[in-house]
Structures are given as structure tokens and as C-alpha cells.
Amino acid sequence: MAIAIIPAAGAGKRMGAKKPKQFIELLGSPIMLHTLKPFLTCSKIEKIILSISEDSSQAIKNCLARNPDKDNAHKIETVTGGKERQNSVYNALKAADLEQDDIVVIHDCVRPFVTESMIEQCIDAAGENSAAIFAVPASDTVKGVADGFISSTIPREGVQLAQTPQAFKYGLIMNAHEQAASKGLICTDDAHIAELYGCSVKILPGSKINIKITTREDLLFARSILENKVEYYCS
């Protein structure tokens, strides 16, 4: 069995918009609906858990009511998220009714260019390796910075930029989240949590089109992708 967890409780303050960025529209549909579409149609995903904030529950209902895929709408469940993304994922993990070797796919709500193929690849890789994520090689020179000055130059040959979806066997990621929560550790992605507790994470080749919409510049890029019907593939 495989399920998806999509944290959707963020306020999107860096965007500077009047509403959370998951509700910003891209060519007539909220970003969240673009993100949900491949998870709804993916035959390997049996359930989708959205972690939402209490004050956005009505906005979520309004958004989901616009979902054209009525046949698969039953897949979606909601749980109350937390202050941090990590808390939202942990709450969803606790709500999931899964066996140890079932697969959990975790994906950013505002990363709308994920494909069914990527989801399936991630599930298969996690089944074989216990944990798998998508990442892209760094194309710019990476600098360590301290107090506004360069402190080091990091060879980019050994650096990749993590993306989602990220998939894990349930027992592994649940145990890692429990330990992180007990120690008050906050990490920026679930792969980092898994790494801290000894898990080797398989890297899959990502796509630079698979962007996370965080800033207004990202929004312009996303609109351009949709308007020009850019096709992209993940081998």
C-alpha cells in the first residue's frame, strides 16, 4: 500500500500575497489542485492526507470543491497540521493506518509540476531501498557564508538540491519523526530526518521544472511553464 502526505498548512509569508500560496491561481486553478492532480490519478496511491491549518479549513473545502476529478475525490482526507512543516507531516503520519513496509510519499503542496511517473518511480525506489528522493545537481558554484562574507567554496560536483516527492517505508519514517519530535529537532525535509537516524536515502534524477513556488519570481516561472505547455521527463 502507498499513500501520499501533502503538508498544506503553510501561510506562505515569503510570497507576500494576501492568501496562502497554495490558493494562488495558476491559469484558473489553485496551485494545490495542480499539485493534487497526479496523486489523484496515480493508481499506486490509495489515499492522500492533507495537513491543513485550522483557520484554512473552509478555504481548503472551497478549493477541493473545484477539483474536476470527482471519481478520485474520495482519496483525500485532512488532518490538522502544526506550526512547522515537520509537525504537519508528523501529524499526518500518526493519522495514517499503515503497516511497517507500506510506502509514504511526502510532497510539497506548492510544487505543482510533479508527474505520475515521478510518484511511481519514488514508490518503487522506496520499496527497494526503504527511502528515496528526487534531486538535481547544483549548477551554480555553492558558497558557504558567514557574517555576510564567503567562508568556503563547496565543490558542486558533490552537491545536489533536494526536491519532493520523497518516499519512505512507513516504519522507518515514523520512527525517525518520533525520535526527532522527542528531541525537539526541526529539519527542513523528511530525508534529513531519516538521515539523522541512520537511513541511506536513494537519489533519483529530478527535474528543474519541478519547482517549489516560494517567491513571486517562482510564480512567474510557473505561469510561463503552463502557458507554454512545457513538457518534461524524469528518466
Give the arrangement of secondary structure elements.
Blueprint: E1 2-7, E2 25-26, E3 29-30, H1 31-41, E4 47-52, H2 57-65, E5 76-80, H3 85-95, E6 103-106, H4 116-129, E7 131-137, E8 142-146, E9 149-154, E10 160-169, H5 170-183, H6 190-196, E11 202-205, H7 216-227
Parallel strand pairs: 1-4, 1-6, 4-5, 7-11
Antiparallel strand pairs: 2-3, 6-10, 7-10, 8-9
Short characterization:
By secondary structure, this protein is of the alpha/beta class. It has 7 helices and 11 strands. It has a single domain (2-132, 164-227), classed as Spore Coat Polysaccharide Biosynthesis Protein SpsA, Chain A (Alpha-Beta Complex), CATH 3.90.550.
Descriptive report:
- By secondary structure, the protein is an alpha/beta fold.
- The protein has a single domain, classed as Spore Coat Polysaccharide Biosynthesis Protein SpsA, Chain A (Alpha-Beta Complex).
- Helix content is 33%, strand content 24%.
- The strands form 3 sheets. A 7-stranded mixed sheet has the order 5-4-1-6-10-7-11, sandwiched between helices. A two-stranded antiparallel sheet has the order 2-3.
- Strand 8 and strand 9 form a beta hairpin.
- Helix 5 crosses helix 6.
- The longest helix is centred in the middle third of the chain and has 14 residues.
- The model has no long low-confidence stretch (mean pLDDT 92).
